[in-house]
Specification:
single chain; elongated; alpha+beta; two-stranded antiparallel ribbon; 8 helices; Helix Hairpins; Glucose Permease (Domain IIA); eleven-stranded antiparallel β-sheet
């Protein structure tokens, strides 16, 4: 059986298995990221977890457990696993720095010892020749004038070198103290990250236990879930039929225009020069289009996926579903024209045309645009609907090229 909405598959990794996965990660992955990138990634994941927590609080306001809560919990588990991998990379980065510092300390200690020995020899020689008479005798004992000159220059350079050597010892000692201070700082940072990693592991263990509990409880309501799945399928069919009508209308108008101009009719949608520019620009921005929400998480992915609860049941998604917080507003991912505002029982869908491409924004409780209106990139299209029973707030996004359904996740930016 197939449905219209994708939910993330259940992941039942044990803590031991996860730890093994983290430890077996290739060091090159950590090397490829510098510390700033790791910190930015950590902040992004933490923000994502905070958003998920907010959405969970909203969905848990309902009296009974529902699939939406499970899907959001699954996403939090995935985010926490990402955070653990990031923490492991940070710890590896610090461990490499600590190893480097220890090498520096060994080098500085050897250099300092060599400087001290050299300085001691110079002091010993200077002590033997500590007064002017001895220095003069050292010079006058020369075999000839050239040797006397060289000995005089040697004494001058020795004095200067001794001063430089003393300065070098002081600088090396200072550098060693700085390096030791950095080592202590890095060790404290390492301990803090290890403690954070342990806390995250504990959180993950508890979330996985909660995940298993929710799955078992929801499986007791199989008939109810099958009914919900059929309702989702019906809504998906209605939306697809509306999209197909828009596509068919565009072809009909193109055929009428061709006949009026005495040209052979084709199945292709006729583009004006401006439409062609927009279409090409839309295609050129694949992978970097903005999200249809200011913030959210993907809870339903494109294509055929296993149902999050019902074993052996597959669900099909023509687009992606992005969960967000109540009251959020959907926005256009590119400039275009409103082809159709479609009204369904309990929600609306907005279909935008971008030359040869269509983008679809479904599950809106209120819309701000009208048919034929020009819209700009990130322009607000409407309020994202919230399911009254499950307190679920999510927008459904589809991208079409002609009759072909595209994976929106490949078109929107990875960093939102």
């Amino acid at each position: 059986m197939k449905g219209s909405s994708l939910h993330a598959p259940i992941r039942n990794l044990s803590v031991v298995a996860l730890w093994a996965l983290l430890m077996l990660m290739p060091p090159a992955a950590a090397v490829a990221q510098n510390r700033d990138e790791l910190e930015r990634n950590k902040r992004r994941i933490e923000q994502e977890i905070n958003l998920i927590n907010q959405m969970l609080r909203e969905t848990q306001s309902t009296a009974e457990l529902n699939v939406t809560q499970l899907v959001i919990l699954n996403n939090r588990i995935q985010s926490r696993e990402s955070l653990l991998r990031n923490l492991t990379n940070e710890i590896s980065f610090i461990n490499r720095r600590i190893a480097g510092i220890n090498t520096e300390i060994e080098t500085l200690n050897r250099e300092l010892e060599e400087l001290r020995e050299s300085y001691a020899r110079m002091i010993y020689f200077a002590h033997k020749n500590r007064n002017a008479y001895q220095r003069m005798m050292f010079i006058f004992a020369s075999r000839d004038f050239n040797q006397a000159y060289l000995r005089m220059k040697y004494l001058q350079q020795l004095t200067k070198h001794r001063q430089l050597q003393a300065q070098k010892i002081a600088e090396t000692r200072e550098k060693l103290q700085e390096t030791l201070a950095e080592l202590e700082e890095r060790k404290q940072e390492q301990q803090a990250l290890l403690a954070e990693q342990q806390r995250e592991m504990q959180e993950l263990r508890q979330e996985q236990q909660e995940q298993n509990r929710q799955v078992q409880e929801l499986r007791k309501r199989e008939q109810e879930l099958m009914q919900q799945l059929r309702a989702q399928e019906a809504r998906a069919r209605e939306l697809q039929q509306a999209i197909e009508r828009v596509i068919a209308e565009g072809r009909r108008r193109a055929a009428e225009a061709a006949r009026a101009e005495g040209r052979p009719a084709t199945d292709a949608f006729r583009l004006t020069p401006e439409d062609r520019i927009i279409s090409n620009r839309f295609a050129d921005n694949k992978g970097s289009l903005p999200w249809p929400l200011e913030r959210g998480i993907i809870v339903g992915r494109f294509g055929e996926q296993p149902h999050p609860v019902l074993p052996g049941i597959k669900i099909v998604n023509n687009g992606i579903d992005i969960a967000t917080t109540q009251g959020s507003r959907a926005r256009a991912i590119f400039e275009g024209t409103v082809s159709r505002v479609v009204s369904f029982p309990g929600h609306y869908a907005v279909i935008l045309r971008h030359g040869e491409y269509l983008t679809v924004y479904a599950n809106l409780s209120e819309v701000f645009v009208r048919n034929g209106q020009q819209v700009g990139i990130r322009q607000e299209l409407g309020v994202v609907g919230t399911d009254a029973r499950e307190a679920r707030t999510q927008v459904h996004l589809e991208i079409w090229h002609g009759n072909n359904k595209l994976n929106p996740e490949e078109w929107i930016s990875r960093q939102r």
